[in-house]
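tl;dr need the bound structure. longer version: we got a ligand (iron/sulfur cluster) that a collaborator sent over and nobodys looked at where it sits. i said id run it. heres the input, straight from their email, havent touched it
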Amino acid sequence: METGLYALQRVSAMIMAPLIVVHLGIILYAMRGGLTAAEIMSRTEGSVAWALFYGLFVVCAAVHAPIGVRSVLREWTPLAPRLIDAAMLVFGAALLVLGVRAVYAVTGGWS
Amino acid sequence: MQDMTEQETMLEVAIWRGGADGRFVTYEVPLRANQTVLDVVTEVQRRHEPALAYRFACRVGVCGSCAMTVNGAPKWTCRTHVKQVAATGKITIEPLRNLPRIKDLATDMTGFFEKWDRAGGRFRGSATRHDEPARVDPASRQRQYADAGIECINCAVCYAACEVVAWDDAYYGPAALNRAWTLVNDERHAATKQTLADASDRGGCGNCHSQGSCVRHCPIGLNPTRSIAGLKRMSLLQFVGMGR
Ligand code: SF4
Ligand code: SF4
Ligand code: FES
């Protein structure tokens, strides 16, 4: 189980690293001449590619973050390991739901 | 002779007395040439404080029983010279960190050795006394990995230096994991898979932050951080089905 989580955390980081670079790169590139929310939406709405891109991002973040926070809580708080594990499942699920909602809001409308 | 003609320079030594709720007591001992911290503790015990509890055996850096916290850092006291640590003419000597204090400078090392076991550190042979001795190629990569960590004297200096041990009671610590690494690289060991599984379990290698306090303080110059990185790598490969 520990090795599995360790592997998942590394793999999710490896996937996220290029996604973050693209994410930041595009923000900088697209913002050069100013950009409105409406313009962003016109490009992302209905785009399956952006939905997949950010969908993957959200899944990786929802896997990666709780594993890291779990370690921090184990080292820095006296909370019971079981309790931490349960809290991290909830935390991961919350990240996933919030993230998927956001991706849907920005790219939704595809059929 | 010298002592009579010259005024003795004194060294101020603050030593922890009592258990967890103890306190420092200060003694004065003469500063001598080639004096180790263990010599100082012995002198205090002989001349000032016969009830002072501390451990030592070999006095030459082999047995690993004399480690203490000297001026805040974990040291093997029999091979730490006073002149290396007492630039100010004062030394503070406490028991090792991260271990329960029994009395004065003696700690309870049970947990340290139990973790050694839990991390998979027990050798299991596959051969009997009737078999030929194993022929191990000293130049093989595996044997070189094992050799790099094999000289550990179980002094617990690294265990006292490790922040993760201080934070997380469950963590096995550098010495136990270094031991597990030497075992998984020992081709005579019959339980490599089990050792690797134990060493990467809840208290195992995944907890290490790789910052190397253990390396910095190990008196033998071992590198537990590298051994633990080896365990991480090996357990990952095993996990994805590429283990050897
Ligand atoms: S490198 Fe790992 S084992 Fe060594 S002191 Fe740091 S956390 Fe502890
Ligand atoms: S690894 Fe070094 S510091 Fe740690 S117990 Fe062994 S000899 Fe002592
Ligand atoms: S007394 Fe044996 S190592 Fe110091």
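gonna send this back to them w/ a short note. Residues B 161-162, 164, 174, 208-214, 224-225, 228 surround iron/sulfur cluster (ligand 1) (CB under 6 Å).
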